[in-house]
């Protein structure tokens, strides 16, 4: 280290000490404690006895005190729990990586058990050589690691007509963000040799729904992954074990789980999932189709209805998540007054393309009401719109792609409620 | 050494490390797909009819197969039961508030109907229908939407002649044009004069869960209390002590039944009848449930559900009671059957 940097480091420390002293003098001192805390003064059982040995849990789950940090569903939303969805407890998580065990699930015919030895991936259609791969074959292709968010197109869909569900988990929990290990789809398509007439791929799963979707070849050759690991371990059953498709930035329905077939075709198949569902009806009754990209979006995860402020006025960390299907998040602003004024939040890490970004606003709460909002901006210059702006273009009959600015009304008690504001 | 060069070197190394592996040539992995294998999986049907097999089916026959296989969820007239999809009706509703999206009112291509029914329906017994059955069901769904007459026969040959009312109702994603104003400079100050709350989620009060669910501080205590209560709860009198492992296994198997059946406290009839005290119950005997005629008749003839009869029924429902509305294909393994019966036996009243 050079002499200059040493000097500047000392100068910084001096400055920090002075600033720290000033803060203490100006602000209220730490809480007073009337009597000694027995958790400190008395020897606790865990400080005297023994804990669990290794191997007590060969594969661990979170400690029991975290038993409320779980996926939850909204029973009235769907006809049954098999073709249904649940929600990631985003209000209780931090950082950006979603643990698989609490990452939202969406199945169309239930989560199936498919063993690696029963797995077959077929590439057929407009290719030089139709091929069948085993799981072991996939592991022999050069592979890469990438972090991407997967958001269901219906995330926030229940909020189109008005504020409906009280909790970030329910309004925005159809999202997860994992590090995938897998083979670029391009590699597999090149192995089979795409004929020049091939312009799309049709991808389907091994479950009864098959959940077939058509993807333009351009995207398939760009960044789509055939993934078999997430966050370092095998995909969980509910996330498509042993192999799923990862379609960065595009709606979750296209991320086919239990992948079994990729067909190179001339035109889109126009399957059930891309005509009767995952299309967006506008006010005049005309519907948009092929709305694949997930628009830039953000949400304050805490404080929020399931994560109220419990500590009273003083230092407060406002935090949340931001993402964009078009690239990296470049900026997140937070408003405490329902959108009159905005402060720029601190990004925990620079935004990464098509991955979740964590933001923080380290602030002081004076104990008064807040109308908390967050607003994401991405590297293309897209700014997350208000619900009114969306309704103006799209009407109120959409189900999917609601990326509006969300408002939490934080009351003087610290409790928060999902509201809509003018 | 120049600082910049160092950065450059590091940068280059980083780029090389992060790059997608270069594929110089094919690796020769995998194996050739056989024609029979492609035929077995390559089932998708495109709007131009590519993929449609030879075959045909009438509205008349379609009504029968629809009633047997689909009506328990979609209704006898394809009008939908409960939250299950409506397949008919909804014409001229797309521009209204809460449009009703059915095959007739919304679906742009008939190929999608054929493809989806053939590949994924009935729910719980996908890929069990014959090609002709699928033509017939598709014909019946068209008839329920008043798109064909009652004597219509759908076949590969006339498939493309059917006109779908909403065929021209779709445009390709135009967000980059119609929402171009979302690419803007964000306002930071004095963005609006007034802010008022216009709607509260608490008014609708449709959020699931209770305060206990969401109170982390008490969660473990509550869970423990529940567990203690469950352990103290008396076992059903007169029934042999169930094997807890088998019951737990049965609870898992029952997930296959949950789409249509409820069991336990407060269980109600849904698509299928509620299953409390099903063991010992006369078949087709829940008053307010609409059974198929064959099921009611079986009960009148004295069929009661015991370990044995239920096991036979669950192994192949439509063989055991021909004409049952239960579209479930049956449980494959005896272990699953034993487990689910053991589980159901714990819900005696």
Can you tag this structure with a few keywords?
heterodimer, A: 422 residues, Immunoglobulin-like, five-stranded antiparallel sheet, 24 strands, disordered N terminus, B: 349 residues, Cytochrome Bc1 Complex, Chain D, domain 2, two-stranded antiparallel ribbon, 15 helices, globular
The profile of the biggest β sheet of chain B is: 2 strands, antiparallel
Q: Give the CATH level 1 class of the largest domain in chain A.
A: Alpha Beta
Count of DSSP H/I helices of chain B: 15
Low-pLDDT windows of residues of chain A: 1-26
Shape of chain A: globular
- Spell out the helices and strands of chain B N to C: HEHEHHHHEEHEHHHHHHHH
Low-confidence stretches of chain B: 1-13, 210-239
Number of strands of chain A: 24
Predict the CATH topology of the domain at 46-161 in chain B: Cytochrome Bc1 Complex, Chain D, domain 2
Look at the structure and give the CATH class of the domain at 46-161 in chain B. Mainly Alpha
Count of discrete structural domains of chain A = 2
Strand order of the largest sheet of chain B: 2-3
Q: Biggest interface and its residues per chain? A: A-B, 110 and 93 residues
Tell me the CATH architecture of the domain at 46-161 in chain B. Orthogonal Bundle
| Number of helical elements of chain A | 8
- Note the gap between the termini of chain A: 56 Å
Q: Any idea what the CATH architecture of the largest domain in chain A is?
A: Alpha-Beta Complex
CATH topology of the largest domain in chain A: Sulfite Oxidase, Chain A, domain 2
Content-based structural category of chain B: mainly alpha
What would you say this structure looks like, in words?
The complex is a heterodimer of chains A (422) and B (349). Chain A has helices at 3-26, 38-41, 45-48, 135-139, 168-172, 185-192, 217-222, 387-394; strands spanning 72-73, 84-87, 106-107, 121-125, 131-133, 144-151, 175-184, 200-205, 213-216, 225-230, 233-234, 244-246, 259-265, 280-281, 287-289, 297-302, 314-323, 329-335, 343-344, 346-347, 357-365, 370-378, 407-410, 416-421. Chain A is an alpha+beta fold and 422 residues long. Chain A has two domains: 67-288, Sulfite Oxidase, Chain A, domain 2, CATH 3.90.420.10; 297-419, Immunoglobulin-like (Sandwich), CATH 2.60.40. Chain A has a five-stranded mixed sheet with strand order 5-4-13-8-9. In chain A, strands 6, 7, 10, 11 and 12 form a five-stranded antiparallel sheet that branches. Chain A has a five-stranded antiparallel sheet with strand order 19-18-22-23-24, with no helix packed on it. The relative contact order of chain A is 0.13. Chain B has 349 residues and is mainly alpha-helical. Among the domains of chain B are: 46-161, Orthogonal Bundle (Cytochrome Bc1 Complex, Chain D, domain 2), CATH 1.10.760.10; 244-345, Cytochrome c-like domain (Cytochrome Bc1 Complex, Chain D, domain 2, Orthogonal Bundle), CATH 1.10.760. Helices cover 39% and strands 4% of the residues of chain B. Chain B contains 15 helices and five strands. Chain B has helices at 3-18, 35-41, 59-69, 71-74, 110-120, 131-144, 175-178, 201-204, 211-214, 216-232, 244-253, 293-300, 307-315, 317-320, 334-345, and strands at residues 31-32, 56-58, 153-155, 170-172, 197-200. Chain B has a two-stranded antiparallel sheet with strand order 2-3. The radius of gyration of chain B is 29 Å and the shape is globular. The interface between A and B is large, with 110 and 93 residues. Strand 15 (287-289) of chain A pairs parallel with strand 4 of chain B, so a sheet runs across the interface.
